[in-house]
């Protein structure tokens, strides 16, 4: 039920826990340059390391997230909106951290679709059984309401980009000698728009984006598995002009239950019973997600025997059918006996006939066959 454990963010960036913001930024820049996919086409792990460093930087460069991480580790970020770097391209990540790399880094390329956001919520098994809702508050980059995302002060005009002439792309010379060639890249000055802002919007300082708090009610379906995510389309960050937003992913972590272990839609519940209850039979109460249920132990119930309660498990997300609650009998042997109990057990032992006990009979028959075989082997060796 546990997901793969993440590495320590300080270890990822190779810095000490008391590193300054400038040291964090410098370490991230070095890591990003080292592992950028365009520079490591032959290293299959480079992209994953690049995204790992980006995730570490996002948390450690934010004072509030860093404080929660320092105090509680990765679990302290549960409920905090963190970008889903696993679904993002390198260009998206570079555009997110312009303050680290500069506007024209690697040609200023960026994809049009908005980036995804993610968070985690913790559910109990009872919530998994019935389905639930979570209200999630987070901050995200959003369109500036003053300039509608254009970055220009309302009423001002944009001018044609002098570097690309309004095309949004430029040609660059690459290679040397007989390998000399030309490639077309996104214009680093206007970032592919073809126009530049003459008077930046005062509200967003020309970025076209502002930080805005968002509140979402996420419906989590019954039967969801640990590690699964609920995707809310269009609730991520905005893309370029006219491009769709990213999505919001709410990942589920299921809290450990004091009685039940989950196996798909079924629940396993070990239940201790006494030697006499197992031998003589009994009616006992067992826990369920809705309360308790009474079950019957047949006379001669064995250790590890399973008793199935149909429909008392969890619903299957696809079929909606509920699994079963499987009670596993654990026969407890007393560690201390009083004099009367020991006397009665010794009297009982004198009456025991192990040949009528299924497991004992099978064991002793197999033991006799084994010993006979051993004696036969020894006789052959003496010859």
What would you note in describing this structure?
This protein has helices at residues 9-13, 21-35, 46-60, 63-72, 90-96, 98-101, 125-130, 275-280, 339-351, 358-382; strands at residues 82-83, 117-123, 132-143, 158-160, 169-174, 181-186, 195-197, 209-220, 229-232, 248-254, 261-263, 266-274, 282-288, 291-297, 306-309, 325-332. It has a domain at 261-338: HSP40/DNAj peptide-binding domain (Sandwich), CATH 2.60.260. The protein is an alpha+beta fold and 383 residues long. The protein has a four-stranded mixed β-sheet with strand order 1-2-10-9. 21% of the residues are buried. The protein is elongated.
Give Rg in angstroms.
Answer: 33 Å
What structural category arises from helix and sheet content? alpha+beta
- CATH class group of the domain at 261-338: Mainly Beta
Q: Number of helical segments?
A: 10
Task: Indicate the percent of residues in helices.
Answer: 25-40%
- Beta strands, count: 16
Kindly, what is the distance between the CA atoms of the first and last residues, rounded to a whole number of angstroms?
Answer: 59 Å
**Element-by-element helix/strand order:** HHHHEHHEHEEEEEEEEEEHEEEEHH
Query: Which oligomeric form is depicted?
Result: single chain
Give, in spatial order, the strands making up the sheet with the most strands.
1-2-10-9
Which band does the percent of strand residues land in?
A: 25-35%
What is the global morphology?
elongated
Sheet with the most strands, sense and barrel status? 4 strands, mixed
Q: Just name the CATH architecture of the domain at 261-338.
A: Sandwich
User: Could you name the CATH topology of the domain at 261-338?
Assistant: HSP40/DNAj peptide-binding domain
Mean pLDDT: 84
């Amino acid at each position: 039920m546990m997901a793969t454990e993440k590495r320590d963010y300080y270890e990822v960036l190779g810095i000490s826990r008391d590193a300054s913001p400038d040291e964090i930024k410098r370490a991230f820049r070095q890591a990003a340059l080292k592992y950028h996919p365009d520079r490591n086409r032959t290293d299959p792990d480079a992209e994953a390391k690049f995204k790992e460093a980006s995730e570490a930087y996002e948390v450690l460069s934010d004072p509030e997230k860093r404080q929660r991480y320092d105090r509680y580790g990765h679990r302290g970020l549960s409920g905090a909106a963190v970008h889903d770097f696993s679904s993002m391209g390198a260009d998206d990540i570079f555009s997110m951290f312009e303050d680290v790399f500069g506007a024209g880094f690697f040609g200023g390329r960026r994809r049009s679709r908005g980036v995804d956001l993610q968070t985690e919520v913790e559910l109990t098994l009872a919530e998994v059984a019935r389905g639930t809702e979570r209200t999630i508050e987070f901050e995200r980059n959003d369109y500036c309401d003053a300039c509608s995302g254009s970055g220009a002060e309302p009423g001002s005009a944009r001018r044609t980009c002098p570097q690309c002439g309004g095309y949004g792309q430029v040609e660059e010379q690459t290679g040397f000698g007989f390998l000399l060639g030309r490639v077309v890249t996104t214009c680093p000055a206007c970032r592919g728009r073809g126009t530049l802002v003459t008077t930046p919007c005062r509200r967003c300082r020309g970025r076209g984006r502002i930080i805005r708090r968002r509140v979402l009610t996420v419906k989590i379906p019954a039967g969801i598995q640990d590690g699964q995510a609920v995707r809310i389309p269009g609730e991520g960050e905005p893309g370029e002009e006219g491009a769709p937003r990213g999505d919001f992913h709410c990942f589920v972590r299921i809290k450990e239950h004091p009685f039940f272990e989950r196996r798909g839609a079924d629940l396993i519940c070990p239940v201790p019973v006494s030697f006499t209850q197992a031998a003589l039979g009994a009616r006992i109460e067992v826990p369920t997600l809705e309360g308790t249920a009474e079950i019957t132990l047949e006379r001669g119930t064995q250790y590890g025997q399973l008793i199935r309660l149909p429909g008392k498990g969890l619903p299957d997300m696809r079929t909606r059918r509920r699994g079963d609650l499987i009670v596993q009998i654990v026969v407890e042997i007393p560690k201390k006996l009083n004099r009367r109990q020991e006397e009665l057990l010794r009297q009982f032992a004198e009456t025991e006939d192990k040949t009528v006990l299924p497991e004992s009979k099978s064991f002793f028959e197999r033991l006799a066959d084994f010993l006979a075989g051993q004696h036969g082997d020894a006789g052959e060796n003496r010859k």
